[in-house]
Request: fold
Amino acid sequence: MSPTAATKGPPFRRVALIGVGLIGSSLARVLRREGLAREIVGCARSQATRDTCLKLGLVEAMHESPAAAVAGADLVVLCTPLGTYDDIARAMAPGLAPGAIVSDVGSVKEQVIRDVVQHLPDGVHFVPGHPIAGTEHSGPEAGFADLFAERWCILTPPPGTDEAAVEAVAELWRRCGSMVEIMDAHHHDRVLAVTSHLPHLIAYTIVGTASDVENSIQAEVAKFAAGGFRDFTRIAASDPVMWRDVFLNNREAVLEILQRFNEDLTVLQRAIRWGEGDTLEALFRRTREIRRSVVAAHQAGTFDAREPDRASRSRSDPDRPGRPEE
Ligand code: NAP
Reply:
């Protein structure tokens, strides 16, 4: 998809979004805004989701069957929880047009490639992708067109993937406002285990632990939930099904980083027990520098378009809570 091609008309004839929740509906909105598809169709299991998508005008048509949704599409994007990929790829395969590009937005890549590739007919190109952008909200009403702006999108095409297909998907994400990086799927899963999966696991744990303490203290926790804990509760509100599937599909990388985290935590535990202030301060100074480098790279979190008040605060102060990146 070249800029020249874009001026001649939409680069995609028919885009099929399998799953139109936070990510799928954000993609639909930006595809529409940027005129990137002549027609957008969607697929969802429930009648309620299908009705909402039509009511919001996100798509021209909604289907229950993945095969019906992908018929005639030159781009198909899987935007459902990872645990559905195997079944959906099997179900949609008979409907795929020769030459179609299949992509996805899943948060784990190696397992996704295994689940999907096995079902795809010859002549269909698979370009796995992962936009590093998200919020703790779910469903078609949660999406917004700016979700991907100034965020990274990582593509993990298996070796030998058609280069024109990779470039078409890369250009699509650039037109959504993202910066694109091509990466090996195994490497992606290790990087994301550190930057996203472990932090979510920690947030789920902390909030779970707090909810286990006796009722009187729980009330205090809610009442004084400022700063750090409040941010953890926001991350721990992320979609349970999506995150269940992330951990089940990135098991090895998450367990490896969790092991290292536990070792580091033990060092801190020991430093606190023995009053080793230097150890604590040295770590906290190092982590403050890391935060500064994240801010300098403009990845500190910007705004959630549905909450304008927070938007203006977050833009002016990058230390304010923004959107959790996934
Ligand atoms: P979501 O808001 O819960 O949306 C998922 C959508 O998929 C829903 O509309 C759901 O509608 C539909 N769906 C679920 N199972 C289906 C099935 N078997 N067949 C057809 N449709 C189905 O989830 P999301 O946050 O957009 O996440 C989707 C994907 O994006 C996940 O793979 C996740 O790893 C990835 N991702 C998420 C984030 C994030 O921060 N949320 C960021 C980057 C990538 P019905 O229930 O009506 O079927």
About this structure: Residues 185-212 form the longest helix (28 residues).
